[in-house]
Specification:
With 478 residues, this protein is α/β, with parallel strands linked by helices. The protein has two domains: 17-323, no CATH class; 325-477, no CATH class. The chain has 14 helices and 15 strands. Helix 6 (240-246) links the parallel strand 6 and strand 7 (253-255). Helix 3 (93-102) packs parallel to helix 7 (267-276). The protein starts with 16 loop residues before the first helix and ends with a helix. 53% of the residues are buried.
């Protein structure tokens, strides 16, 4: 999630990561006194809390009948996403999204379950219902004042609990928080989280200083079981390196290559769509997310009674076919091999300089994105191919681009332009990848921020992209 342009000063779920480093190295609630009849009677309100707000059963009396969908939202707002101001009119981003869910709630077609952590209050697990005069729209099944919302094992346990107690034909898992792409920041000597220039990765818990690492994302889906749709409502997560870790246990990946506004998705519209089209194909689901993004940026960000124009804010949204990721290493190897074997140094230098790059590690001070490590893979290949001297390099670039457009990425949109750097976001192809940064001589201390080595990622182990980056680093520095 992300800042707007400086002129708008829009609150962000993005981060001041590089600047922060200064280049230096409970128990669930058990209501045992209630009997089965008490709990059964409470369901007269549709299984929602209201005048019987004190009822907090540990588990549903029995698993519900399978519906069309169960939507699981792991909402980690144990950070600045819980409460921050935007012109004094808005800023409780988690509350906003939960309120949107309550406008639709759980229906006869769709279950909506949330593991909701918020700053200073721990976490509660709940079934979301439709809010009314008699109900606040929450059936709370457990509360944990000491919940670690940055622990990947908690995500697994939540997903398993949801599948067991609220079965469905299809499952959607949404991870809601900040995001930093594949980079796992080393927190040994630095504070975690958000606000005044802290570090963050996906599902960051400011209180426990824990977060979910890239490789742990793969473990979440392996352990919790197949997800028909895997959504990351967080910045910078639609990356080849991230998607490759989860490729075998998801049917569709929804995320953004770029930073995302703290507004997040419109959950009322999402749940409305799923109830209207419960049998929606991946194509239709993809269309929903892409069309929603276009409409949101066209109408502007709602702040009280007004909408703030977003024409100067860059944004992306894309859906990726996970199974196609198994073919990606072959295309990467062919492209990288052809470029290196034909010594296409000139073409690579142009691509490093000109390819669309996403948020810098220091977005406040690095407007030229000298410290932005992520590029759009399609755009990088296109620029390299257009400037390559050898036929082999041009052909490999075209084949990689064709695979991205027709095989890997289902739907994609890039909006607006980064005028500071001349990046037209309509050029993006929907999947980002790590690449040599524009800064000629990266400070050696920069290596200290990485907890996970790039070479340890599955994509690095399966492809030659990490070796290619060693080569591009040398080309760029010389």
């Amino acid at each position: 999630m992300k800042k707007t342009a400086a002129g708008l000063a829009l609150f962000t779920a993005s981060f001041l990561f590089f600047n922060a480093l200064s280049l230096k190295a409970g128990e669930p609630f058990n209501l045992n006194s209630l009997n089965a009849e008490d709990i059964q009677n409470s369901s007269a309100l549709g299984g929602q809390k209201g005048i019987l707000d004190w009822i907090k059963p540990d588990e549903p009396a029995k698993p519900a009948a399978a519906k069309e969908w169960t939507v699981m939202v792991f909402m980690n707002a144990k950070n600045d996403l819980a409460d921050s101001a935007l012109f004094g009119l808005a800023g409780k981003w988690a509350e906003k999204d939960l309120a949107e869910m309550k406008k639709v709630g759980t229906t006869d077609k769709v279950n909506v379950v949330v593991d909701y952590g918020t700053a200073g209050k721990g976490a509660k697990r709940l079934l979301v219902g439709k809010k009314s005069l008699l109900s606040n729209g929450e059936t709370v099944y457990s509360q944990d004042p000491n919940a670690d919302m940055g622990d990947y094992k908690r995500v697994i346990e939540f997903a398993k609990w949801a599948k067991t107690n609220f079965p469905a034909k299809k499952y959607m898992l949404i991870l809601w928080n900040h995001g930093l792409g594949w980079i796992d920041p080393n927190l040994q000597n630095h504070s975690a989280g958000t606000g005044t220039g802290g570090n963050k990765g996906i599902l960051f818990d400011d209180e426990t200083k824990n977060y979910v690492r890239t490789k742990q994302l793969g473990e979440i889906l392996r352990a919790s079981g197949y997800m028909d749709v895997f959504v990351m409502n967080a910045c910078l997560m639609q990356m080849a390196e991230v998607a490759y870790e989860v490729r075998d246990n998801a049917g569709l990946i929804v995320a953004s290559e770029e930073s995302m506004l703290a507004y997040g998705f419109d959950y009322q519209k999402l749940l409305g769509f799923m109830n209207t089209e419960p049998a929606a194909t991946n194509e239709r689901i993809s269309d929903f997310f892409i069309n929603w993004q276009k409409q949101f940026f066209s109408e502007g960000a709602p702040v009280g009674p007004i909408h703030i124009p977003l024409g100067s804010i860059t944004a992306t949204m894309s859906t990726v076919r996970p199974q196609a990721l198994n073919e990606l290493p072959g295309y990467l190897n062919a492209f990288a091999g052809a470029v290196m074997e034909n010594n296409e140094t000139g073409a690579v230098k142009i691509a490093i300089e000109k390819a669309v790059r996403f948020s810098s590690l220091d977005p406040k001070n690095d407007k030229k994105k000298m410290l932005a490590p992520y590029v759009d893979l399609y755009d990088f290949a296109a620029i390299t191919g257009a400037n390559a001297a050898s036929r082999a390099a041009r052909q490999a670039a075209e084949e990689l681009m064709g695979f991205i457009k027709s095989g890997l990425v289902f739907r994609s949109v890039g909006l607006n332009a980064d005028s500071e750097n001349g990046y037209d976001y309509s050029r993006v192809g929907g999947i980002a990848i790590n690449m040599t940064m524009k800064i000629k001589k990266p400070p050696p201390q920069l290596a200290d921020i990485y907890e996970t080595k790039y070479s340890d990622l599955e994509l690095s182990q399966t492809s030659q992209w990490d070796e290619f980056m060693v080569w591009t680093d040398k080309v760029w520095q010389n």
